[in-house]
Design goal:
With 559 residues, the chain is mainly α. The protein has 14 helices and five strands. It has a five-stranded mixed sheet. The radius of gyration is 58 Å and the shape is elongated.
Length: 559
């Protein structure tokens, strides 16, 4: 339809079946062309996708408009037609094919003198629209496949992130569990060791009451070991230790229950994380890939059908005398009136023209059937993509819930770790408190050891003083003998006074005395004499204390 280099006419097709002619020239802008299309088809200029046929090349604004559309068909495509509108496009193509076969439609469609060429032009236009719809559907299926592949990859990353968070929570739970087991073991040993003392403390006091003091230590109001202790503070302190004992046992049990509950909750989260539908989404994506491969085959078949229709129309025009050979110098095509005027009524019934038209219609039916198959595949692809997106949403929701639960678990584990630290501090405090009661329990053995050591000290001190006096006498005797020997030598031998200087010197003087290094304010040990009866009592206390210690050690080993 090119009418010259300065101006031309473009045939603009909309997928709803409407057509109009638009005159363009070198001064026509892209915006003016799109506004004209918007006025006729009511398709927003910003939403228009313009394809230039028959190759359906995308119209680009980076190049001038006139060389792209001059004398060519322009197909208008709206984004909304890619889904529901695309179905109506193919249905409209099928309806137009059936209408084109009706006699009344042929009578209205055929311009005077050119019926065969007009019908072949309609068939070629329907084939171009079928190809356009097939390419749009195939492109949309490719986009759905890419989105589904990205969704599957994202789901795999989400699953890996959740698994990593669960592994970190497991490691942290093991660390807290190990610390809890160490603290629980120490607390159990401490409680087993202190419980008999707390429950039998009255017996300990009664035992102290039965242990008499050494006669040298007795005084008014102090005859037994119990009299030496602040009795008004012992039982209240025992009650305080009992309360700390019960509180420690309660805190240990509560911390252990909390850790067990967290471990069970973590196991539930692990079981829940095992049900991520990533494999199902991957299978759907693979099935969508297979549908895309099938759509490519159908698109190729549709393109081949369009090319076959174009070849058939070209052959029919050459056989019937259309175009330049039949028009005698005309421009050819639908707009060439001279070629149409040369066509007679006999050409419509000629065998070659009817055979070409029939073949073109059969090929168009095949192309439209390919397009319907593509739309069916597109519907399946949309269903698979919708399922993949639904699985992704479910995965995101489940992963969000799992990550939130894991975060809460880690917060609770940090609280349990703090409880373990506080439990260890309580155990140390309880142990320090009970040590005072243990000292009271072990007082008989300590008293026995101390009295025996006092007796040993006094004996050792007397022996040491006697040894020192003995040594002092020996040294004094030796010095006296040395002085007498020197005097004899000097009296027997007369030497000049300057011959041997110092020969008249006397022996060294020695002074030995004992000194008490203790300060004056420190009390002196009483004179504790060796009392056989009291010593036997002390030895029996030591044996009893050793036997009790061995029994406590044996109970600990058995537990």
């Amino acid at each position: 339809m090119d009418t010259g280099s300065a101006a031309s006419t473009s045939v603009v097709h909309c997928l709803t079946g409407f057509v109009f002619l638009e005159a363009v020239d070198e001064r026509t802008s892209h915006e003016a062309f799109r506004r004209a299309i918007e006025r006729h088809f009511h398709v927003n200029a910003k939403e228009q996708v313009l394809l230039v046929g028959p190759a359906c090349v995308r119209l680009t604004s980076r190049k001038p408009l006139f060389p792209q559309v001059a004398g060519r068909r322009v197909y208008v495509y709206d984004h909304a037609m890619l889904t529901g509108e695309g179905v109506r496009v193919v249905d409209e193509s099928s309806r137009m094919e059936s209408v084109a076969q009706a006699p009344e439609y042929q009578a209205d469609l055929q311009p005077p003198g050119t019926p065969t060429e007009a019908l072949l032009g309609v068939v070629r236009g329907d084939a171009d629209r079928a190809v356009f719809a097939a390419e749009a559907v195939a492109s949309e299926m490719q986009r759905l496949r890419r989105e589904c592949t990205a969704c599957v990859a994202e789901q795999a990353l989400i699953q890996e992130a959740v698994q990593a968070a669960l592994r970190n929570a497991q490691t942290y739970t093991r660390e807290v569990g190990e610390g809890m087991r160490r603290a629980q073991s120490r607390v159990r040993r401490l409680l087993r060791r202190t419980q008999p003392l707390l429950t039998g403390f009255e017996g300990v006091l009664e035992r102290l009451r039965r242990v008499p003091l050494h006669p040298a230590l007795r005084s008014e109001g102090r005859a037994t070991l119990l009299d030496c202790l602040p009795q008004e503070k012992l039982l209240p302190w025992r009650d305080y230790c009992q309360r700390t004992h019960d509180h420690l046992a309660e805190r240990a049990a509560r911390a252990a229950e909390k850790l067990d509950a967290l471990a069970r909750s973590l196991a539930e989260q692990e079981r829940s994380a095992a049900g991520f539908p990533v494999d199902k989404a991957r299978d759907l994506a693979n099935s969508l890939t297979a549908l895309v491969h099938e759509s490519q085959q159908l698109l190729l078949a549709t393109l081949e059908a369009r090319d076959a229709i174009a070849a058939t129309a070209t052959g029919a025009g050459e056989g019937d005398g259309f175009g330049e050979s039949g028009g005698g110098g005309g421009g050819g095509g639908v707009g060439d009136g001279s070629g149409a005027a040369a066509t007679s009524e006999d050409e419509l019934g000629s065998g070659w023209a009817v055979l070409a038209l029939t073949r073109a219609r059969h090929t168009l039916a095949g192309a439209q059937q390919h397009t319907r198959s593509l739309l069916a595949l597109h519907a399946q692809s949309r269903g698979a993509a919708s399922d993949v997106l639904g699985l992704k949403r479910a995965t995101v929701l489940r992963a969000s819930a799992l990550m939130r639960n894991v975060a809460e678990l880690q917060t609770a584990l940090r609280a349990v770790r703090g409880a373990v630290s506080r439990l260890e501090a309580l155990a140390r405090e309880h142990e320090e408190s009970v040590k005072h009661l243990e000292h009271v329990r072990d007082l008989p053995a300590a008293y026995a050891h101390s009295i025996l050591d006092v007796i040993r000290r006094q004996h050792q001190e007397r022996a040491f003083v006697a040894q020192v006096h003995r040594f002092e006498r020996q040294v004094t005797r030796w010095l006296r003998h040395e002085a007498e020997r020197r005097d004899r030598i000097t009296a027997m031998h007369h030497l000049p006074s300057r011959l041997i200087p110092g020969i008249l010197r006397r022996p060294l003087a020695v002074s030995i005395h004992l000194r008490d290094p203790n300060p004056p304010q420190r009390a002196q040990l009483p004179e504790v004499d060796y009392d056989e009866e009291h010593v036997q009592l002390l030895l029996s206390l030591l044996e009893e204390s050793e036997r009790q210690r061995q029994e406590r050690a044996r109970e600990v080993e058995e537990e």
